[in-house]
Specification:
Number of domains: 1
CATH topology: MetI-like fold
CATH class: Mainly Alpha
Number of strands: 0
Strand content: under 5%
CATH architecture: Orthogonal Bundle
Radius of gyration: 24 Å
Order of helices and strands: HHHHHHHHHHHH
Largest sheet: none
Helix content: over 70%
Length: 275
């Protein structure tokens, strides 16, 4: 009887109220409410249009920028540099983490470099990068890579250290080399930490490149999204400033959605993390 009773599935409590709505509906309602508050502020506070744009003006400017390329090209420039810088950061972080796992010297090196360089804001490193590389793409790539290396390395290193000891022992007992232990045992076990580190690195890199473009006005020969916002500010083109901020917000939502899908398709599906 006890066995039969224990096999009966336990019914989950039904969602009530707000939780009964689909996620996209809830978020669409919140988004509409925020737009309504924004419009109400513009309508009832009698704000200066040179200082604050309405939702309609922002949407119109955003659409025009997509259509004529004045917003699309800077966004593409920023994203290409961002992806390249993050790619360099991932490569360097993987090498440093592997070296730290294989040798005691590498572990001490990674710990020291992380404690020194991880707290540094990316923009704080940019003046030095500009002295070394000039006002060009290389300076931006350097600061993006510096902003992404350390969160990725820290998270992967933590994943390696917290891997299941039984799996590590099995890999060692069947004769795997130290390199094979990293690639076949530790790397899969550290996947949740790697994705978490990539999300953190993306956020750091995104803030770094936008801040660099805003403050220094450099991000490639054509100028990036931050440079677009800065130029709009200089000429009091407030709707363009808001359109640039909306582009940043939309890209943030898109990348957060991509990371969510990646987690659900990998570590959640494989039982390494609950949804």
């Amino acid at each position: 009887m006890a066995t039969a009773a224990s096999s009966i599935p336990v019914a989950r409590p039904r969602a009530v109220g707000w939780k009964r709505l689909p996620v996209w509906v809830r978020r669409a309602i919140i988004f509409a409410a925020l737009i309504a508050i924004w419009q109400a502020y513009v309508s009832f506070r009698d704000v200066n249009p040179l200082l604050f744009a309405s939702p309609w003006d922002t949407a119109t400017t955003f659409w025009d920028g997509l259509r004529d390329g004045t917003l699309t090209k800077p966004t593409k420039t920023t994203l290409l540099l961002l992806m390249e810088g993050i790619g360099i950061g991932i490569l360097v972080a993987a090498v440093l983490t592997a070296f730290a796992t294989l040798t005691d010297v590498g572990e001490d090196l990674l710990t020291l470099l992380t404690s020194i360089l991880n707290p540094l804001p990316g923009v704080a490193v940019l003046p030095l990068a500009m002295l070394w590389f000039g006002i060009n793409d290389k300076a931006i790539l350097f600061v993006i890579a510096n902003a992404t290396i350390w969160p990725i390395a820290i998270n992967i290193s933590t994943g390696f250290k917290t891997a299941n000891p039984t799996l590590v022992s099995v890999g060692r007992n069947i004769g795997l080399s130290r390199v094979r232990q990293i690639t076949d045992v530790l790397a899969p076990a550290a996947l949740p930490y790697a994705i978490s580190g990539l999300k953190t690195a993306w956020a750091f890199a995104w803030r770094t490149i936008i801040a660099a473009e805003l403050v220094f006005g450099v991000a490639g020969s054509e100028g990036g999204l931050g440079n677009y916002i800065n130029n709009a500010r200089l000429y009091f083109l407030t709707p363009q400033v808001f359109a640039g901020l909306v582009a940043i917000a939309i890209l943030g939502v898109v990348f957060e959605t991509v990371f969510g899908v990646l987690e659900r398709r990998t570590i959640v599906r494989w039982g390494m993390k609950t949804s």
